[in-house]
Amino acid sequence: MENLIKNNLGQAAFLENLYRSNPADFKRTFFAVYPEIQTELTAQIWHERLRNTQDEITWGGLKDWSFVGVIALIVAFFMQLPDLLSISHDVYFPRNMAFIVMPGMAAYLTYKQGLPFKSLIVPFGILLFSMVFINVLPVGPVSDTLVLTCIHLPILLWMVVGFIYSGANLSITSKRIEFLRFHGDLLVMCAVIVLAGGLFTALTINLFNLIDIKIEDFYFRYLVLSALPSVPLLATLVVQQNPTLVSRISPVIARIFTPLVTGMLVIFLAAFIYTGKDPYNDREFLLIFNGILIGVMALLLFSVSEATKDSASSFQRFALLALACLAIINNGIALSAIAFRLYELGITPNRLAVLGSNVLVLLNLIFVARQLLGLLKGQKNLSDVEASMTQFLPYYALWAAIVSFVFPLVFSFQ
């Protein structure tokens, strides 16, 4: 649909018919390509029209639900596969969980984007190679490199999903920003679906308990286990069909939690200094510290994607700059502790993987903070901030690939 919109801006009747055939899909695609055509008068008129359109919730057609239903059944089959083939859950699920969840999303997005086969060769190749690689790793005592591969492969697959979502144009900054915003909306919708599913589960189990029928084991083993991995797929369908439905909630969440997390980090740093906690020799503290930093980084990236909108206030951007600076300080502490442990205790796969990740995060934070500062001073524009936020995505994917595929070989599967 992107090419249809861009190539037919001068044909009012054609665009009108295209819009009426699928308003939700047209609106989502139009806003995705608008940065490329915003100099055209027709595009500006459509932008004003669509921006002020009151959306109704749409649920998609029978083809969409049939496609999602088939994928959900396939996902359910793979979730029950260990029991059918007597495979250890501890071996099967850590290695394959990402391949159960993300390919379904990728397949649905491919179906909606209508990508040609040649555009799918690289992502399909990465998916297939990753699946084979992690499943041929030695089975035995859990190794550090296996755990690292299980952690980092989902990041690589996430970028594959992003490549498909962008219509094989993930190199374009606006596409990367749209992908991050999509995931913010996706997380919100997943939370709503899980809460609704939890309520349904509680009602169902308690109703059957009233007549002395215990269904807990069956319900969780077969229904919940089979359906839970399809939640992101269902959320993807809802968000794709209603691109502005959740997008009104996500900015609210970002605006509320950004100042709250900023205040929490200030208090944490003060308490950290007051208590004299030693991150250099306390491994558990350092792991939790890095986990918090990852959460802060995710919030920052999501919030920046909202703050680059024209409607964002100066206070919101200032709060983001403060959050970025505090995250840089925290990252610096973690990075120094990791470097100290490497120097004192030697190189291990875990320490090297965390060191590389922290270096990438620190550089990303510095770039984002510089651009936010320039934006507040009037020296930078919104596109500069967007570029600084998204330009590290390929490097995250590259590092995830190195940790996943190279570390097990270099460290002899230790």
UniProtKB/TrEMBL annotation:
TM segment ranges: 65-85, 117-139, 146-166, 186-208, 220-240, 252-273, 285-305, 317-340, 352-373, 393-413
**Carries keyword Transmembrane helix?**
yes
* Key words, A-Z: Membrane, Transmembrane, Transmembrane helix
The protein in question is named DUF4153 domain-containing protein
